[in-house]
Amino acid sequence: MMRWPTLLRGWNGTDAGYDILLRFAPDIDAAYEAEHEAVRLRLVNRMVVFGLVMYNAYNLTAYVLAGDVFWHGLVMRLAVVTPLSFAMMMVLQRVNAIWRERILLVGMINAYLVPVFVLWSSRSQWALLLTNEMILMIVFATTLITLRFRHAIIYTAVVLGLTLAVIWTNPAIATTLIWPLTLQMILAAVFCLYANHHSERRRCEDYMRAYRAADRARTAENSERRMTMLSLTDALTGIPNRRSFEWMMSDWVAGHDAVGLMMIDIDHFKLYNDTMGHPAGDGCLRRVAATLSAVALGPHVQIARIGGEEFAVVMRGATSSGSKALATEIIREIRGMADPHPGRLDGVNRVTISIGLAVSSAADPFDRAVLMSDADAALYQAKRAGRDCWRFSEPAGPIVDLRQIA
């Protein structure tokens, strides 16, 4: 069994996106049907109604050309083919694309059986002129309904075989006319099949151009999105970087909600690097970032690494009490990491952090620079207080030293 990558080679050896039978690759076909199914159904419905009008109009010519079996043909057209065609239109709305096209193929062959039957059973000397109707029916199926090319091949082969069998077996058709009629039917079938192939191939090519253009646009958009994400993400820790932090601050401070900001610093991190080495320092930064990410959760809380061993937590809609509670939890979780820090000279011997906390007022005019300055000032207060604690920017705010918490 041939695989799609082999079949999808176009005439010039490049990847065409469709095979020799003008079938799209499965994923492309699904995309095509999603875009064109409704249009296809509307076209088929219009063509079936139009075709039935023309189809039944041929009852008038059959009355003259094959009067001996006229009533048989009339009943088959009006009582069988016409209601079945309307039933087919209803069924087509409820089946998938594969069965839609198969049902169309069966419907076209079914309609063709009536003129074949009339030609086969009539002994009128004029019956052979019914082949004109047959040719028009082939034209209708291949170029107006536009059966899919693979189905057009089946349809053309079946109806041509039936027609030639009748031409060669009907004694009412003069022997001298058999070969001319045979040649006419073959040429008509080949002509219609070629027209169908031309139309179907152009459909495939047009869609593939649009598909590839859309795919290039999606690829460019995804690349741009990835580049944007990379530009906003810290490569070492995987959390937002300073640029992302600046954007968040600009966006959130521009609103009317109070904004809380924590400036976080890993205590004595230079000594950690000097003692443990830079690879260990990178691991420490990643673990601190992971802990911050696990604690500072929620749509209104964002963390960022803003440089070196410095991190920030931004909180929208913050309150003083909620921000202090979060700062307390963060310090406790970092202490819970129990990462050794043998380079410290203060006897703590584990990784800790200091936090400076500030909260804006939703009621008062606010400047982002003020918030950052207040948080930085509070961070320095925490460092002067011995680290491993947080400080709030308000002078009257409570002082909490978690080193004294059991």
Automatic annotation (TrEMBL):
Residues 257-395 form the GGDEF domain. It holds the Pfam family GGDEF. The chain crosses the membrane at residues 47-65, 71-91, 103-120, 126-145, 152-171, 177-195. Keywords: Membrane, Transmembrane, Transmembrane helix. The keyword Iron-sulfur does not apply. It comes from the Bacteria. It catalyses: 2 GTP = 3',3'-c-di-GMP + 2 diphosphate. Its EC number is 2.7.7.65. InterPro entries: Diguanylate_Cyclase, GGDEF_dom, Nucleotide_cyclase, Rev_trsase/Diguanyl_cyclase. PANTHER family: DIGUANYLATE CYCLASE DGCM-RELATED, REGULATORY COMPONENTS OF SENSORY TRANSDUCTION SYSTEM. This is diguanylate cyclase. It comes from Loktanella gaetbuli.
